[in-house]
Amino acid sequence: MTATATAELALLDLETLSSRDVGDLQLADWDCAPLEGMLSPGDAREGQYVVVVLPAWGDERAAKRTLTLPRAALVAAGCDASIPSCLVLEHSRPLVGVLLMALDAIWSGVPAMSSSEIEVTRGALVTLTAGVIRAQSGSATPRSGVRALRAQLDEWINNHLRNGPIHIEDLVAAFNVSARTVHRAFSLTGDTMTAVVRARRLAAVREDLVHTDMTIAAIANRWCYFDPSHLCREFRRHFGATPSEYRESHGC
C-alpha cells in the first residue's frame, strides 16, 4: 500500500493492529473508538483511495476491520465517482455479512497464495465491495428508462475504449439522444462521462500491466493515451505508483 493510501487512513481515528495486502488493496484490523452510521456521504474527498469500515458495535473501544481500495477500481466496477473517501457500512445488512465472511477467508488465505491467486482474489473483492456499496447507497434499484440507458452507455464505452477518444457527441450519435440526456444518465450516480471513461481506461491499463509483458509504450498506444508520459501521469494520479512500479509490485 502506498504512502498516499496510508495517509488517507488518517481520516479515521485508528491505531493499527495488523494488515494484509491483496495486490493493491489493503485489509486491516484496527483498535479504535466506536463508529456509528451507515454509508457516510458527507466529507467526500477526491482522494486516490476509499477506506471501507466494517465496525464492531459497542460503547468501548473495539476491533474494526477496514478495506482500502483504489477509487479508480471501484468506479470501474460500477460505483459512483463521487464516493466519499471513508465509508462506514451497516453491519446488519446480509450482503455486508457476505463481505465479512469473504474477508475472514481472505485474511487467513492470502499469506499462502501465489501472485496469480492474489490477483483473482483482488478482482473478486473489488466486485463484491462495489456491489455492497451500490446496494447500501440505494443505487441498486429497479432501472428507470434513464438508468437503462446508463447501462447501455457504460457497455458502449467499454466496447470502444480502444477506438480513440470518446466524446459526448459519440454517445449522442450512437443512441440518438440529446447531450442533456447523456449528461443526466451519468449524473444519476454523481458521475461524468469523462470520469467513467478515465476509470475504465485505467482499469484496462492495470489489467495489461498485471497480466502481460507489453511495454508501457505499447499499453499507452493500445488504450489511446497520447504517449507513455501521459499514461504514467494519469496512472500515478489514480493508483499512487507509476505503471512500472505497479507492475513490479503486483504483476503476475
TrEMBL record:
Keyword Zinc-finger: no
Pfam family, one: HTH_18
Keyword vocabulary terms for this entry: DNA-binding, Transcription, Transcription regulation
Domain of life: Bacteria
Stretches assigned to coiled coil: none
Domain HTH araC/xylS-type: 151-249
Name of the protein described by the UniProt record: HTH araC/xylS-type domain-containing protein
